[in-house]
Amino acid sequence: MHLRFLDDDVEFFANTGQSVGRYNFRNRFKPSLHPLKTPAGVVLTLSQPHDHLHHRGVMYALSASDINFWEERQVRPNEKVGVQKHLDITETSAGPNRAGLEHRILWSCQDGELDTFEEVRLLSCEEDEAGGLVWQWRTQLLALRDLDLIQSHWSHETAGGRKINYHGLGIRFRRDFGPVFSGTQVFVNAEEVDFAEALGSKPAKTAIVGKLDGYSEPRRAGLAISQHQDHVLFACKEPFPLVCLGPSNGEPLSVSQGETLVSSYELCPFDGNDLP
Fold first, then answer.
1. For the residues 4-20, what does the mean pLDDT come to?
2. pTM of the shown model
3. Residue 166: which residues within 8 A CB-CB, separation 6 or more?
């Protein structure tokens, strides 16, 4: 595998020379991974759809009581709009089966004030002997001040009335994984469940599988997401297909200056119905 550095993006290539994903590191709001492709080249993600322009494929953002890094606009009185400012990016690993990068980011207000986090983000992709792809996403956030991470007022509620937030690592899926099309499935720890049942769980592994539009023969693909902590899962397919795992998804979280938040995930895109 290898990387190709462009002015605004880093493109990941498999051993075959096929592009498997592109990381936009200069976006001022959310440096993100899009498109994310299966080994067969199927694009799984959607970026900046007309219904939610701030959804950017595979992304990571949070919201605090005084600054919002998710919506890319002001949604509550007196809050600031946050940006993730690119500082530096370097290649970390390259070889026959693996390519990766380290991205350093400053989370602050768009006017240059209210420094909130210094982030070291590690992103890599490894190709196994069978041609499968395993992406590693690790976000390490150093808090530069005391702050309170909050839940959005658009969070969804479980059947029991518990409020589940949609921050942290977010994946916006292609539109045919959504409500207009039938057949989208969600698996929690390899067991198929309803989206309502998945909402609010703390799975070690989540998988989303959907039918693909635009092919003459029935075709399916999906994404398996593993986490190395106990973040709460937000999962929905209505009004659009979105999955999130984050530290403030289950309840608000107070963070002290000097504290470090670490989020680590594995993403395995796949073709067909067989979960990796």
1. 96
2. 0.97
3. 70, 152, 154, 155, 156, 234, 242, 244, 246, 249
Higher pLDDT, 55 or 94: 55
Q: Check: CB of residue 240 under 8 Å from CB of residue 172.
A: yes
**Mean pLDDT (whole number) for 6-15:** 96
Q: Which CATH class is domain 2-271?
A: mainly beta
DSSP tag of 220: E
The domain limits of the chain are 2-271
pLDDT at 93 over 80: no
Name the residue among 189, 107, 181, 115 with its Cα closest to residue 145. 115
Separation of alpha carbons 206 and 241, rounded Å: 14
**One-character DSSP codes across 35-84:** EEB-TT--B-B-BS-TT-TT-BSEEEE-BBSSEESSSSS--STTPEEEEE
Residue 181 pLDDT > 80, yes or no? no
Nearest in space to 15 (alpha carbons), one of 108, 133, 189, 124: 133
Q: Which of 22, 20, 24 is nearest to 37 (CA)?
A: 20
pLDDT > 90: percent of the chain? 90
- What pLDDT, in 10s, does the model give residues 186-205? 999 999 999 999 999 999 99
Residue with tokens 């979105």: 242
Choose among 59, 30, 31: nearest CA to 45: 59
Residue 211's closest CA among 249, 241, 243, 170?
241
| Cβ(231)–Cβ(241) below 8 Å | no
For residue 171, the one-letter residue type is I
